[in-house]
Design a protein that fits this description.
Layout: H1 13-23, H2 38-46, H3 57-68, H4 76-88, E1 92-96, E2 105-108, E3 114-115, E4 123-124, E5 130-133, E6 138-141, E7 145-146, E8 159-164, H5 171-188, E9 195-200
Helix pairs in contact: 1-4, 4-5
Length: 202
């Protein structure tokens, strides 16, 4: 475990180049059929979530880049995690490791459980969602929404990186995405290695 030293900008020109190089051959109209998007949509349909209304997180991020022609900025570490997500086309979540109560479990939600999404109001889950949780709370609705209770903000010292795979996505690709996120975070963190990794693969 190690502490993160925050930099003001985080993303450099090389990282931005990776984003736009990854996106340059993609089209909004056909993104849903891409080989790195379609399996996530298929998985969401299989658990009763309509991906035309709620998109996998990496697809939603790519759509923002393609439609606006710019990269959304949040904070240095989240931004570089998003660079890796776009480059590898794999959903990546970052969490405040110091607020987690292991072990982490990927499971079905319980009807009535409350989830507090980033940027949204608390909601009661139906029992059909797949969630990532610790002993006390839900971190993530798989594979599209993170909780504000464990979000990474400036000043957070220890970070958990979670890269999400589904059937039809190679485990090696998911692992490579997680490792890339850790490398990029080290750059944003002034060269300090600082993250634990978890990959979810089929």
């Amino acid at each position: 475990m190690c502490s993160l030293k925050w930099c003001r900008d985080g993303i450099d020109q090389d990282m931005l180049s990776r984003v736009f190089a990854s996106a340059k051959n993609l089209e909004l109209s056909s993104l849903k059929d891409h080989s790195m998007v379609r399996p996530y949509r298929r998985f969401m349909w299989s658990i009763g979530i309509d991906p035309t209304k709620v998109r996998p997180s990496h697809e939603a991020l790519l759509r923002r880049v393609l439609s606006r022609g710019e990269f959304p900025r949040i904070n240095p570490v989240v931004d570089v995690g998003n660079v890796a997500s776009i480059e590898y086309m794999v959903p990546i979540g970052l969490y405040n490791l110091d607020l987690l109560r292991p072990p982490l479990v990927l499971r079905r939600s319980r009807a009535g459980e409350v989830f507090e999404p980033i940027g949204g109001k608390p909601r009661r889950l139906t029992g059909s969602e797949v969630v990532l949780s610790d002993q006390e709370k839900i971190l993530h609705i798989f594979p599209y929404r993170d909780s504000r209770t464990t979000m990474v903000t400036p000043g957070v010292g220890n970070i958990l990186i979670v890269a999400a795979g589904v059937p039809g996505i190679a485990a090696e690709r998911v692992e490579a995405a997680a490792l890339a996120a850790r490398r990029y975070i080290a750059v944003a963190g002034c060269g300090v290695e600082c993250a634990e990794l978890v990959t979810i693969t089929s």
